[in-house]
Amino acid sequence: MDATRVLVTGASGFIAKHIVLQLVEAGYRVRGTVRRDAKAEEVSGMLRRHGGDAALFEPHLADLTSDAGWDEAMIGCDLLVHTASPFPRSQPREKFGLVDVARGGTVRVVGAAVRAGVSRVVLTSSIASIVYGHPGRGERWFGEADVSNVESSDISPYAVSKTLAERAAWEAVDGTRTELTTINPSLVFGPLLDRTMGTSVQLIAMMMSGRLPVLPDVTFGIVDVRDVAAAHVAALTASKAAGRRLVVSAEERSLLDIARQVAEGHPAFAGRVPRRRLPTWAVKAAAVVSPPARMLAAELGRTKRLETAPAREILGLAFRSGDEAIDAAASSLLAEGLVTP
Length: 341
Hints:
Layout: E1 5-9, H1 14-25, E2 29-34, H2 37-49, E3 57-61, H3 70-74, E4 79-82, H4 99-116, E5 120-124, E6 141-142, H5 157-173, E7 179-185, E8 187-189, H6 199-208, E9 214-215, E10 219-224, H7 225-235, E11 245-248, E12 251-254, H8 255-265, E13 276-277, H9 280-287, H10 291-297, E14 305-306, H11 309-315, H12 322-335
Parallel strand pairs: 1-2, 1-4, 2-3, 4-5, 5-7, 6-14, 7-11, 8-10, 9-13
Antiparallel strand pairs: 10-12
Helix pairs in contact: 1-7, 4-5, 6-12, 8-12, 9-10
Domain NAD-dependent epimerase/dehydratase: 6-244
GO molecular function: dihydroflavanol 4-reductase activity
Keywords: Oxidoreductase
């Protein structure tokens, strides 16, 4: 009998490559969507480099902004992992500026999956669709019942796009036989499989390059990309995962704590890694005229606690430590020549 075929969208992305590798290692056949032929070869090369069977990977050209190719992409696929979504290096000024691509792409992809009779969709969402726009929540816990408030003035365009894209996915499967699970990770660190950096890992690269002399007093959840990928793979078949929003995060760390771990694990970079906190008054002063600063000011001094027990129990996960995720990211940046001492 042929192996189960899984469609993975945005297969050349940082998280997606780890998912593709783990799926191939588990014996799945993977059809991966990419926007260019060069990206297809990049994924195949990654598999060969890390001992995966590249023959189990089949590329398919498709773009989130176009209807073309998505029905064809679903042919013969039993399962879907939808990872493709815009994550810009800089936020647009318009709060809803990323929504059309993120939500429109989700509607196209999930709609095609429903038409094809795909049994389960696993969507790469984010804690950004859960924790933002809730003033006064302080250090209360956040979990799958929480939804970011897109009308808040303190929410970023990225968080708005992830929230509305996830909402669109739930609406697309409502009343159908297609099951949906969302994986909602925090900041994703961990090792690179090639020179493709996730946006979160770029933060560590900037620290190691001396491009961040000071850091704001902001705390985030962090998680290793290998655990994020494992969550997606497990969610494809875990019966209790259907209909759930599963928060995936190992622990919370401030930006300065992350920087200290980078310096401790890689002493050659200690002189470049930031050690000073950006004064709160400076962020709040900038918030008067700058929307990005206003969003940052809303997070100063806050620690958002994340409920990860459902992901651990339903998916059978044991998360790697934050130290391991940070050290692996920094080591692979060095190994790939993306940062130099």
